[in-house]
């Protein structure tokens, strides 16, 4: 390429890169830096547009996603899909879709179709053409002729031979990780003999296992993958694409670099398990380029794979779960497959956000499942309409209601007027959540010593509660089941002058507000409440059998749920649309999702066929409740029982209940990164920082917070920027010398006065995503207040802050009485760099 053309191409790439770099979803990482270097792009230097650019390795970036069609894609693949396509978009390149169909034993057309559907789904909204990939779907099998020619070329150059050792003998000759292998006695066969044997293998003259073709490299190599790896093996099986044409098939490590080169792939992005295979990848390309069978020289780069707690991503284990009926198929909403996530109702944008937050590195990590749930909540809070659904209904009859049906208008989304309104009917009989009535006179009241739970604001015998958007009602009588004494109906009266939130003069304001569904117009449906499939973070770690850790409560089926009529109307329209308009299969019933107020996010299941058979799947609760003892959770959801010291009443995530939350769990301690720092214009002791706390703007881009911190002269600005730290994100914003601070940074201090004081920010492990909610070891998951601004909340925060210290190991702790708890992330404890046994402020 001439210098002038190189300059033109490089300027185009630089212009394109700088126009999208700010919106690139993934944080800059070692792979994007490598690609920038390959392009000759230096976004931090004006010299990148000079008239004498360095030699450009590539002009157009091309990546690929090459799954083997022997199973359904899972969450681990989501990272590979998202990143390969994101890199292609970032550098205005393209991404190929390729089926690595080299093993006819395990492959199936069902898997091919599901993979293509999953890739289109997870990339939905990011492409304008029919598919997100470049051109047609590629298949390794379409290159079989060329790959075979490459095998003969390697024999002719003395770089391959036919080996006749048995499988057991090959293992013996290969050596171990600590001892070299030894050459096969067949290694020095002549070129002519090797070609004859390979051609007879191709013609089907030998049995499986009788011969293999091997590369001739180095049996003493410290990398066991370079000890004459196998290139071809005999398999007398029909192939779904090529039929019976072939009875020898190439190994993945051999076909992979050849396929990449034939497609002009510039950067072959793989997960870390292929790192030790890269030398053979490069060897193959190097040996074959001189033959002119391939011309491109793709570059393989590895990054860490995605591991997620409380699940398994092994194809073998996933197939076992399906075949042994532990789940209801590949798209069971408990499965970590992309089809399972889709059926459950997880938005594809939430999966992409999750992958972006996890980031790209070379460090293996085991990400908490709650991090994925946080992303689902974030996306669905923004996009889902609100609706009433009563999951465990208790009938309420309003005795003094004389009219027919009355209608109330409510917004479909509290922050988005463009979504419009919905009409909610109201009448003489309504359903409320059973958990919204505390039966002080019944069994649960007796269990609580006849006392009302502290902070309880919902309905009591003889008490009042407001029905959201409607009226205040008062409970006058309880109709009980004669056998269990459980309430089966409440006789109530309503206050006509309290309509739509009005509190008439002389009436004390009713604090409790609950949701409801009118009985005659409400539509009965079924709800599947899903939770984690496995109890243990690493299934099978203790016993060696992952099935020992299956969660017996991963699915709770609720029949007799009632939803407001607008939900049923929307559902029927969606079912008809999917059945008639979605000819390409790109529209799914789970696209219809709601926030059922005070209960969680729910999506329409594909088994729904009409208004009489509606099924909704719980996608995620309103907040993370994993790890709470089910018996205790049941109590909390009703706000029953005695409270322990320093607690508050909080909302439940499980369907209209309430719970008690200790001080330390009310504070939102989140992982964050300092992006910028500088001096305060009016205060020498203050610094003004831009901090990424995981918040997102409306367009999905990070939205940093401004934090004013008294760290000037304590920590150098250069030492602040880039630090992965702890921020308290739910304190009331405060102006500090004219600049509003919207979070607080936690730091350890040795307690000395003035210039002698040593201060260190608390550091969070690198792989923890910004915004992750940190929790206290051996405590239930935190349930932060929306904003700690009341006097009681601020006192609670002061109590927590006073009990924070670093331990003798420098770890951040909170102490209450004789118990001490570490502040934990999904990747381990939070620590100070060097300060031990000091205060945290």
How would you sum up this structure, described in words?
There is one protein chain. This protein has 19 helices and 44 strands.
Question: Could you name the key traits of this structure?
Answer:
841 residues, alpha+beta, single chain, seven-stranded mixed β-sheet
Radius of gyration: 31 Å
Helix fraction by DSSP (H/I, runs of at least 4): 10-25%
Main sheet: strands, sense, barrel: 7 strands, mixed
Count of distinct strands: 44
Count every helix, treating DSSP H or I runs of 4 or more residues as helices. Answer: 19
Which band does the percent of strand residues land in?
Answer: 15-25%
Overall, the morphology is globular
Structural class per helix/strand content?
Answer: alpha+beta
Ends: how far apart?
A: 60 Å
Biggest β-sheet: strands ordered side by side in the sheet: 12-25-26-27-23-24-13
Mean pLDDT: 87
Low-pLDDT segments, ≥5 res = 1-24, 43-58, 628-660
Quick summary of this structure?
The protein is an alpha+beta fold and 841 residues long. Helix content is 24%, strand content 25%.
């Amino acid at each position: 390429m001439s210098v002038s053309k190189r300059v033109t191409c490089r300027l185009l790439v630089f212009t394109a890169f700088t126009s999208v770099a700010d919106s690139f979803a993934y944080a800059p990482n070692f792979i994007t830096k490598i690609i920038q270097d390959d392009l000759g792009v230096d976004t931090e230097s004006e010299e990148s547009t000079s008239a004498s650019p360095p030699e450009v390795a590539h002009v157009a970036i091309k990546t690929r996603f090459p799954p083997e069609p022997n199973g359904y894609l899972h969450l681990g693949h989501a990272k590979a899909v998202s990143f390969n396509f994101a890199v292609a978009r970032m550098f205005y390149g393209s991404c190929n879709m390729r089926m690595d169909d080299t093993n006819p034993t395990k492959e199936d057309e069902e898997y091919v179709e599901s993979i293509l559907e999953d890739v289109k789904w997870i990339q939905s909204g990011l492409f304008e053409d029919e598919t997100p990939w470049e051109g047609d779907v590629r298949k390794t099998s379409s290159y079989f002729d060329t790959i075979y020619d490459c095998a003969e070329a390697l024999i002719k150059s003395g770089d391959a031979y036919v080996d006749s050792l048995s499988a057991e003998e090959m293992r013996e000759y290969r050596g171990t990780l600590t001892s070299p292998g030894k050459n096969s006695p067949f290694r020095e066969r002549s070129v002519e003999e090797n070609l004859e044997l390979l051609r007879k293998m191709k013609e089907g003259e030998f049995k499986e296992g009788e011969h293999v073709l091997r590369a001739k490299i180095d049996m003493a190599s410290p990398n066991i993958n370079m000890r004459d790896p196998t290139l071809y093996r005999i398999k007398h099986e029909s192939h779904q694409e090529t039929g019976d044409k072939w009875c020898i098939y190439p190994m993945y490590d051999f076909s992979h670099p050849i396929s990449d080169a034939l497609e002009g792939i510039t950067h072959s992005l793989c997960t870390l398990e292929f790192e030790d295979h890269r030398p053979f990848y490069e060897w193959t390309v190097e040996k074959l380029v001189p033959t002119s069978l391939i011309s491109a020289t793709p570059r393989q780069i590895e990054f860490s794979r995605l591991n997620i707690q409380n699940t398994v991503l092994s194809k073998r284990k996933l197939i076992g779960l399906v075949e042994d009926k532990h789940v209801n198929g590949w798209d069971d909403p408990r499965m970590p497959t992309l089809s399972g996530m889709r059926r459950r109702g997880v938005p594809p944008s939430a999966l992409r956000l999750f992958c972006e937050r996890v980031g790209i590195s070379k460090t293996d990590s085991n990400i908490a499942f709650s991090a994925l749930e946080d992303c689902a909540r974030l996306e669905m809070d923004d996009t889902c309409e609100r609706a009433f659904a009563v999951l465990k209904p208790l009938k309420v009859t309003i005795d003094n209601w004389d009219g027919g049906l009355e209608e109330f208008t409510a917004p479909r989304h509290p922050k988005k007027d463009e979504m419009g309104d919905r009409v909610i009917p109201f009448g003489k009989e309504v359903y409320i959540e059973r958990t919204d009535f505390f039966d002080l006179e019944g069994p649960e009241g007796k269990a609580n010593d006849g006392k009302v739970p502290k902070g309880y604001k919902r309905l009591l015998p003889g008490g009042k509660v407001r029905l959201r958007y409607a009226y205040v009602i008062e409970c006058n009588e309880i109709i009980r089941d004669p056998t269990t004494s459980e309430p089966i109906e409440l006789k109530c009266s309503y206050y006509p002058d309290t309509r739509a939130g009005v509190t008439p003069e002389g009436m004390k304001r009713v604090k409790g507000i609950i949701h409801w569904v009118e009985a005659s117009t409400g539509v009965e449906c079924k709800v599947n409440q899903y939770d984690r499939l496995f109890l243990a973070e690493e299934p099978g770690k203790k016993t060696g059998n992952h099935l020992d850790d299956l969660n017996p409560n991963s699915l709770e089926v609720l029949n007799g749920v009632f939803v407001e009529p607008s939900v049923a109307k929307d559902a029927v329209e969606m079912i008809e649309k999917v059945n008639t308009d979605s000819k390409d299969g790109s529209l799914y019933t789970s696209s219809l999702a709601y926030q059922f107020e005070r209960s969680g996010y729910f999506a329409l299941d594909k088994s729904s066929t009409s208004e009489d058979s509606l099924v909704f799947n719980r996608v995620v609760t309103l907040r993370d409740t994993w790890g709470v003892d089910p018996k205790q959770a049941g109590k909390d959801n009703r706000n029953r029982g005695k409270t322990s010291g320093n607690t508050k009443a909080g909302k439940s995530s499980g369907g209209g209940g309430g719970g008690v939350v200790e001080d330390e769990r009310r504070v939102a301690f989140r992982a964050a990164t300092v992006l910028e720092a500088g001096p305060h214009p009016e205060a020498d002791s203050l610094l003004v920082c831009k901090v990424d706390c995981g918040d997102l703007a409306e367009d999905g881009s990070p939205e940093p917070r401004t934090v004013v911190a008294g760290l000037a002269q304590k920590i150098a600005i250069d030492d602040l920027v880039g630090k992965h730290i702890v921020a308290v994100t739910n304190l009331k914003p405060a102006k500090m010398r004219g600049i509003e601070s919207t979070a607080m940074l936690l730091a350890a201090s040795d307690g000395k006065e003035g210039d002698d004081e040593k201060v260190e920010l608390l550091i969070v492990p690198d792989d923890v995503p910004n915004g992750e909610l940190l929790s206290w070891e051996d405590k239930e998951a935190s349930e932060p207040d929306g904003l700690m601004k009341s006097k009681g909340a601020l006192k609670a925060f002061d109590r927590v802050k006073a009990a924070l210290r670093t331990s003798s190991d420098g770890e951040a702790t909170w102490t209450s009485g004789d118990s001490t708890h570490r502040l934990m992330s999904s990747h381990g404890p939070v620590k100070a760099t060097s300060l031990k046994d000091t205060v945290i402020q």
